[in-house]
Design a protein that fits this description.
The chain is of the alpha/beta class. It folds into three domains: 6-48, Arc Repressor Mutant, subunit A (Orthogonal Bundle), CATH 1.10.10.10; 78-141 and 254-282, Periplasmic binding protein-like II (D-Maltodextrin-Binding Protein, domain 2, 3-Layer(aba) Sandwich), CATH 3.40.190.10; 154-249, D-Maltodextrin-Binding Protein, domain 2 (3-Layer(aba) Sandwich). Helix content is 38%, strand content 26%. The strands form four sheets. Strands 4-3-5-13-6 form a five-stranded mixed β-sheet, with helices on both faces. It has a four-stranded mixed β-sheet with strand order 8-12-7-11, covered by helices on one side. A two-stranded antiparallel ribbon has the order 1-2. α5 crosses α9 (266-279). The chain starts with 5 loop residues before the first helix and ends in a 6-residue tail after the last helix. The model has no long low-confidence stretch (mean pLDDT 90).
Length: 285
């Protein structure tokens, strides 16, 4: 599923292409349904195969976590923390924000995963990660949820854009602007679309991207405008991007998700406190 062909899969696994094909055939027969169809020379997974793969991912993730914990115990590396965060935080913000903390904690081992908010909840429930950072709170008996930040979305503009001279950007100002939008399954898209609907403005989506940082990069290169969280693109200079408050004010929360069945380690608690402090400058005023 990752490589798209039996040949490439064999290369990654260190076995021959016929061996991969034989394994696939045997597994499909044991499952009782087709796993792949062929399209333009590539193996395309069936819907049934994707369902099975999701469960396999859980199994592999759990196995890898056991291996990491065992290695930490064996090597006396007691600090092991796994964080799953939405891509808007995991891509650039968290690596920059957490670097000082990690430099001061040389024995702390961190695993950072970029996941969509619904998937983060699943990982917390399965106790496959220690801390989740999500825009959805999730009311579940196995999850403790704490809101640590309410932020206002900002309008991101190329520095030389005519609207950059305004102190705030109304949704009406964006009526005819080329808009860089997030994918339809992004949790923030509904909130942003609601702001346009309230003012009766139709977005002119030009580009759809999977991550906020990707949208920010397009804005920096003058391709269009976007509405993004304020902690996106923090290292872009003002001569490339300007951020302006959006009217009407449009807000979302960031939640820390932890397992209600397993207390956080002291190191994980310290890390959450550090994240909370790093996000404080972006708190809604």
């Amino acid at each position: 599923m990752e490589t798209g062909s039996a040949t490439h899969a064999g290369e990654r696994l260190g076995i021959s292409q016929p061996a991969v094909s034989k394994l696939l055939k045997s597994f499909a027969e044991s499952c009782g349904f087709a796993l792949f169809s062929r399209s333009n020379g590539r193996l395309v997974p069936t819907r049934e195969a994707r369902l099975v793969a999701a469960e396999v991912e859980l199994l592999i993730s759990g196995t890898e976590r056991v291996e990491r914990v065992a290695a930490a115990v064996r090597n006396r590396e007691w600090g092991q923390i796994t964080i799953a965060a939405m891509p808007a935080l995991a891509t650039r913000f968290l690596p920059q924000a957490l670097s000082p903390f990690l430099k001061a904690q040389p024995d702390l081992h961190l695993t950072l995963q970029s996941r969509a908010s619904p998937r983060i909840a699943e990982l917390i429930i399965g106790q496959q990660v220690d801390v989740g950072l999500s825009v959805l709170p999730f009311d579940h008996p196995d999850i403790d949820a704490e809101a640590i930040l309410r932020f206002d979305f900002m309008c991101f503009l190329p520095a030389d854009h005519p609207l950059a001279s305004k102190e705030a950007i109304g949704v009406e100002d964006l009526r005819n602007e080329a808009f860089i939008s997030l994918e339809r399954d992004d949790c923030s898209l509904m909130t942003i679309d609601r702001a346009f609907q309230i003012r009766g403005v139709q977005k002119r989506n030009r580009i759809e991207v999977p991550m906020s940082e990707t949208a920010c990069s397009f804005v920096a290169n003058g391709v269009g405008v976007s509405i993004l969280p304020p902690f996106i693109g923090v290292d872009y200079a003002q001569n490339r991007i300007v951020r302006r408050p959006l009217i009407p004010k449009t807000s979302m929360d960031i939640w820390v998700l932890t397992s209600s069945r397993r207390p956080l380690s002291l190191a994980a608690q310290q890390l959450v406190d550090f994240i909370r402090t790093a996000l404080r400058p972006f708190c809604q005023q």
